[in-house]
Every structure is written in C-alpha cells, then in structure tokens.
Amino acid sequence: MYKFEPMRTIIIDDDTTATICLVEKLKKYNEIEVCGTATTGEIGMKLVREVRPDLLFLDVELPDYSGVDFLEHINDLISQNCHVVMYTAFSHYMLPSFRNRAYDYLMKPIDDEELDLIIGRVLSASQNDGKETAENILHKEQNGKLLFYTNMVDFRVVHIKDIGLFQYNHEQRIWEVVIAGMQQPLRLKRNTNNENLLALDSRFVQVSQKFIININYLMEVSDNICRLFPPFDKIDYIKTGRLYRKRLIERFSSL
User: Fold this and answer.
1) Crossing angle, helix 67-74 and helix 41-51, to 10 degrees?
2) What are the CA-CA distances from residue 203 to residues 163, 176, 214, 248 (Å)?
C-alpha cells in the first residue's frame, strides 16, 4: 500500500507572532508537516540544508538578508520541486520574487481563503512533478486579482472588478486595459493578444476586433454602441462587430 508522505515545510520569518499564526493555520492540512522555523537568513540556510524542504514560507525582509537575496543563495540547496512562497506585507517585492523562482506570494495578515488557494496549488503542482511554475500563473486570477506585465520589467496588479474593457491601440499596435480610477489606459506587453485576454476570466467578452469588455459592466447596446455602468458610463466609443454581436447577446441574456 502507498504510504503518504507529508510535504516537509519550514518557515523563515523574524516576526515570531506571524510565524506562530502561520504554524497554527497549517495544522489543518494533513499534507503539510512543519519541520522547523527560523528567525534569520543564516539560521534559515542551516535549516534548509538539514530539512531539504518541499515547501518554504519565506519572509521578504529578514534581519540579515532580504528574502530575494536569500533565494539566490539557496538555489543550489533546494530541489526544483521545492515550492517557495514569499510571505510579506509588501506587494512591491512580487516581481523580483517570481524571477528568483518563488512559486507564490502570501500577503500578511494571512487570509484563510488565500492560504487555501496557495496550498491547493502547491499540492496540485507537487502531484504533477512540479511542472507548473510561477511564470505560468502570472496572468491568472489570484483572489480576484490579475498581474499584468506592461513591458519586460514593469508590472501592475489589478482587481478584475476594476477592469472595464480592453482596447486595441492601432497606432502603437498594442492592447490596453481601461481601469477604474486610472485616467489613462494601461498599456500591455506587445506580445499580448486577444486570446490571452479572453482566457483570463469568463467575464471578458470580445465585441469587435478592437474591444473586449467586462460583461458585468454592460448596461445596454444601442445603435451598436455598448453602454457601460459607472464608472465607465462616459465611454461611448465601443462599437460591436456583426460577427461578435450574437455571442454578446447570448452572454448578456444569460446574466
């Protein structure tokens, strides 16, 4: 009979209260075994060598290392199947973390549903030999948020509920996203296409070659112009294409 082996897990965080909280929350997962904790990067490295963890929760700001620097130092100590979850109150470390092989990003204070999602993804990926990586999830939904690259370096995290539409800029030959509260559309990477955008969430529906809307904001279609609910009610240039109109009506009718 197959013997289940829980994932060896360690936590490296100088905030003792936060560590205790995370340890308690992880107790409900039978698949997770916390094998040790550390409060500094130096102690954490020794722990990594000893435990060879399958899962590592790593604080971004340690007394002697930044979490990102710590990752660079332990790349040769952990296997490719070790999942590193950056654990912090600061979202601006997200991109450097992913670039240094972090698998996911957990914000403090911990949201139980977010932790459930992360543990679920980690367990699923471990069952698939770790083939899914952070690079594959950057544009997927994470608790109602999307991460968009705007070029090879910069990025922005956006709530899906704040997206009114995507529009194609023919002059720049790029897709842009119109976001509530932003005066100018956010320009996306040049290799972003309509299929990428439609795959992000079922709420996004293409209404012409140039426009993809968030169907939840659609109020009506009048004279082939899509009228949206606030805060996008001032937009009056979204025309529906004949080839897209039938699908739009079907989606709108199903709401």
Assistant:
1) 40
2) 10, 17, 5, 11
Residue pointed to by tokens 């070029």: 151
As a three-state string, the secondary structure of the chain is: CCCCCCEEEEEECCCHHHHHHHHHHHCCCCCEEEEEEECCHHHHHHHHHHHCCCEEEEECECCCCEHHHHHHHHCCCCCCCCEEEEEECCHHHHHHHHHCCCCEEEECCCCHHHHHHHHHHHHHHHHCCCCCCHHHCCCCCECCEEEEECCCCCEEEEEHHHEEEEEEECCCCEEEEEECCCCCCEECCCCCCHHHHHCCCCCEEECCCCEEEEHHHEEEEECCEEEECCCCCCCCCCECCHHHHHHHHHHHHCC
Assess contact for 54 and 81: CB atoms under 8 A: yes
Where the chain has pLDDT below 50, the residues are 1-3, 99, 130-141, 152-153
Instruction: Dump pLDDT digits (tens) for 78-120.
Output: 766 788 898 877 665 555 555 455 677 788 888 898 898 888 8
Distance CA 143, CA 248 (A): 26
Question: What pLDDT is attached to residue 214?
Answer: 95
Is the Cβ–Cβ distance between 40 and 53 less than 8 Å?
no
Q: Are strands 211-214 and 163-169 parallel, antiparallel or unpaired?
A: antiparallel
